[in-house]
Amino acid sequence: MHFLYPIGLLALAGLIVPLIIHLWNVKLGKTIKVGSIALLGESSRASSKSFKINDWLLLLLRCLLLALLAFLLAQPYLKKIIPANSKNGWILADKATFQQVFNSNKKTIDSLLKKGYEIHDFNLGFAPLTLKDTADNHAKQTNSLSYTALLSAANHFVPAGATVYLFADHRLSRFGNELPTLNYKLNWIPLNQTDTLSSWIAEYAGKKYEAKSSPSNTTYQALNLGDEAPINIAIHQTSGTADGKYLIAALKAIGDFTKRKIVINPASGKVDIGFWLSGDAVATNFKSSIAPRGALFQYENGKVIVEPSFMNLDGHHIKLSKRITSTSQAEKIWTDGFGNAVLTNEKADALHIFHFYSRFNPQWNELVWDGVFVKAMMPIVIRVENSTDFGFEDNSADQRHLSARQKNAFQSNNAESTVRTTQNKALGTLFWIAALLIFVTERILSFRKKPNYVKS
Predict the structure, then answer these.
(1) Does the residue 438 lie in any domain?
(2) Domain-embedded: residue 216
(3) How many separate domains does the chain show?
(4) DSSP letter string over 39-61?
(5) SS3 assignment, position 294
(6) What is the DSSP letter of 157?
(7) What helix, strand, coil percent values describe the chain, rounded to 5?
(8) Residue 390 belongs to a domain
């Protein structure tokens, strides 16, 4: 038996109350008749006490009643281990492709059905399926939910500890950023993919790219190589720091990826973006060097908060050790684990001003070491409406699959979560019934007990 609030057991100290009452039992004295009291001298008054328990049953009932009340405060429950049971197993397959799944895995599915497995649609609601659904040749639409969301939702439908056989592909685009924690044992059987190469056209910043995708990677090649104006960027950093070095590496990666020419610290002319990597106030001449409708990215200064947290960027959690307090009401672009602003954006003086409440420094955070750094900086460097996911967009033609390392991590994550499955059963109702019965019994015995008076 376990307790949700063990501190409630401190109420057991109240057991001393009935014990004291039963031990402190004052008896009435006897009246004795005598012929003469002339020879009796005056004596001090005294009362007779007995430190002997005369009613063990009442004491036991009262102590037990108080103990039950203490247990109720602690909220007892039983923890039951539920082993995996093949008779409660599930077969999951998308109804839209169930016919092909059954034809390719008929022997395996028939064997599981003989063991008592149930077939369910791998879609929201997990509706039951039968073999009759394999004869349905009507065109159906494949579900659009991510596998991560569906596997997490299945926790509320699949019997705890059951074994699940999932027939689905290993396309990377169907997964979210975090692996789900499951309360069932998952056996993933990948589907045979006929088309392993695909392509599509993507557009970004006025340029068109041909995306070619295979199970291992996706590449982009610019189609309309024009004479786009270069992106001029000015960088100012505090002397003796390496923040600019990390930023320049990210800018070069963005240039290589988008095939856009990026000029850092041009000798003359206006710049499109200015990065002020210093806690000092932005210099007037630096701000004026930015072209109208350009952008200013500046370090903020203020009280430094040192606490372990993380930066939430596109679903990724980047370790954050230090940040600057923010009281700005500007739009939050990046936040920490507590919802505090790490990067905000506002429009002022015909500029987009990005206020950064941390630093491009590994002592402040691990952003510069993470691959998401380039993706996070791209919409700041190349500002295009509704195109922030270029190169990272979800496309139905994306053929990338989980790598061997990702598959191993996925299986390891599920193995740890399904070794033992527990279920908690509250015992509060049973304790209340027992307390009521004991209270009624104690009252009956108390009223039936006759006082032991000595008549004179």
Answers:
(1) yes
(2) no
(3) 3
(4) TPPP-----EEE---S-HHHHHH
(5) strand
(6) T
(7) 30, 30, 40
(8) no
